[in-house]
Amino acid sequence: MFALIARLLQNLMARGPEQDASAGIPNGLFETAEARAGTDPVQAQELRCAASAYLRVVR
Asked: Which of 9, 12, 19, 24 is the most exposed, fewest CB within 10 Å of its CB?
């Protein structure tokens, strides 16, 4: 799971400062969670929790 989060962060940072990276992190985590929901529901729940935690910290 940490590898997925690290890869997501690297992709967001590579986009550049013109895009709002803080909005992309939780969206990317939620999208990845939806993609994993059918194959690995435990990891999907962990990704949802990580996205929710990020949103709590940012807000």
From this structure: 19
